Amino acid sequence: MKSVTKSKMIRMPLIGDVMMSGARTVIGIVMGLVAGGILIALSGVNPFAAYASMLRGAFGSLPAFSNVLVRASPLLLGGIGVAMGIKAGVWNTGIEGYMYLGAIGAAVVAIQPLSIPPILHVLLSFVVGMLFAAVWGLIPGYLRAYKGVNEVTSTIMLNYVAIYLTSWLVSSPQPLAEEGAFYPMSKLFQESAQLPILMRGTSLHPGAFIGIAICLLFYFILNYTPFGFRTRMLGSNINAARYSGVDTKKQVVFIMVIGAILGGLSGAIEVTGLKHRVYMEFVTGTGYQSVAVALLAGGNPLGVILTALFFAALKAGGATMSIETGVGASMTDVIIALCVIFVIAVGVDGRRRMKKKTAKAETAVTTEGKEDEHVV
What we know:
The chain has 376 residues and is an all-alpha fold. Helix content is 73%, strand content 0%.
């Protein structure tokens, strides 16, 4: 019999996970930035100068970086909501709708002059916003788990329903609407229901720090709890999860509702921390950018932090790049799309290589087993 020597491995729960799972993301982002630089050069602008102005616009000063954090706030919470679905093999693309429902729920409480401490007023706004979004997320979750309805189709359709429902609720003569407003919007939130500004002269509120804390929390939930194990098993092999005793239908519903709650919290923080009202179409496209954030992160909650900050830096720095170099602000969206495409392409190639290696390993084990039988 041939002896097999086992190599010792050093486990690094946080750093190791980021390095191993983030390699594909880093490669895809670098390729996307290179491709974006080529497009910028074709437009007649020096790509190095364009990227330098983008960096200045995102990190050139403390107020500039605070703008990055403000922009990252909804992406962090929305991204982790989608990432949980990716780990479970479910595509929860309804973050946009959950944000609108969360904002409406928060507005119902925030416009009321309640005689309670500000911290309780804000928390109550968050809770009601998350409840509204949870009920909304229960619809596609139930349809996916018990009726076999594709969750991508149902969530995208419900996004449009949520957007138009919000537009109707903030238009006169609805109770939430501001009377005589030039644009459909809700009444102004009470000061006690507004998140504090952390840096004078900026719009920095605690939303980004809440999002980072929740990403860290869900990293440990996914990796060190029975719920996280069931979620990862569901995403890896639904049949194995079912045969091992996991109630896959309930697990799918839970995952969809958790994503909805996080999306609702994202919308509630956006309106209590930045807008102080609910406007018609106040977060157009942010929910779909959260899907891209989760894709770039590969469903890794730690990766969501990095990719959300990356997207926010592109958006914040893109305005400076447009002003200083003349490159259209839409170029940031092009770069984001290129990064997503390259990350997906690298991932496909990686999976193919892994399948080949697995097949070779299985063949080697089978051959070795036959040789051992002949020796015996």
